[in-house]
Amino acid sequence: MTQDTPLSPLPRTDGRSPLVTAHRLRERGVTAAETAGRCRPGGPWREVLPGVYLLHPGPPSTEERLRAAVLYAAERGPSVPYQGGGVRPGARAMLTGPAALALHGVAAAPPLPSLNRLHVLVGRGRRLRSAGFARVVRSAELPGPEEVDGLPVAPVARALADTVATLTDAAAVRHLVTEAVRDGHAEAAAVVGELRRARLAARPHVVDTVALLLAGDRGHAEDRLYALVRHHGLPDPLWNVGLRLPDGPHLGGVDAYWPAEAVAVEIDTAAPDGDGTLPGAAWIRKREQVERLGITVIRCTPDGLRRAPAEQAVVVRTALMAAADREPAAVVIAPR
Q1: Is the pLDDT of residue 167 over 50?
Q2: Are 64 and 137 in the same domain?
Q3: Is residue 216 part of a domain?
Q4: Where are the beta strands (DSSP E) in the chain?
Q5: Domain that holds residue 105
Q6: Which residue in 56, 74, 73, 54 sits closest to 64, CA to CA?
Q7: Residue 245: pLDDT above 90?
Q8: pLDDT, position 68
Q9: CATH code of the domain covering residue 237
Q10: pTM above 0.90, yes or no
Q11: How is the beta sheet containing 250-258 ordered, strand by strand?
């Protein structure tokens, strides 16, 4: 086969991008020597990343670079038709970092054409090195990818954490993260959870941003708790009070307290996994201490108040009804 002999039909990764892997070429009977011949200077093909070929001369477009990075990182395997186009499901590789944020439409992310490196997220056990414009990011647990323009892309919270890992300026971190949360691309608790998972939350240039996220998340959660009590006809509690033993130590503050029923609601913004499913250690200690006095403590997370306020209202109402015949707890109540 000469350099100018056409291959027919040419394998494609999808209907839009003229990219192909060495694995796919071998499946179609194209030898390594034939591929190398077509990639010589002046030839019709170009190897844009190791084992990933562009089936036209000249530099790849921005879209082609994105797809090439994912093809390079995707695990090799038999060809599987993918109805949505792009890389086959189960490839266990996805774009993350600034490129993922730009694809998600995060305004504070740099524009895609300006990115010299594209971060691709793969499993920790993969034997894959960064090459060219593809930078490999490893993780013991991969999130479920979201499809954007036919590409597997990490969720915004994870992409933010992977981007923050590359930054050293506190102002840049604050601008990027707070803008993404403010514009509704990710929940604050999810972002904080990812930053904690990556052991970034305590870094000096990140810690202030985490504090801002938690404060903002708590403020919105308090507003939703007020609305929950009002819209679901619950009796008015005492809002934002502190509890302490008579002539004893301070037990901590709660966001809402029904003294006759000894029922308290506390908003927990410190869930360690960031998704609002597991209580933080500080909240567990407070609950154990207060419950010894016969007080029922109900934990609400900002995410739970946002997603399922009716379910939260049922939990509170049930606790109030169950405590109707209980003696009030012997605690002193004071404004927080």
Answers
A1: yes
A2: yes
A3: no
A4: 19-21, 46-49, 52-54, 93-96, 118-123, 134-139, 146-148, 151-153, 238-244, 250-258, 263-267, 296-300, 332-335
A5: 19-186
A6: 54
A7: no
A8: 95
A9: 3.40.960
A10: no
A11: 296-300, 263-267, 250-258, 238-244, 332-335
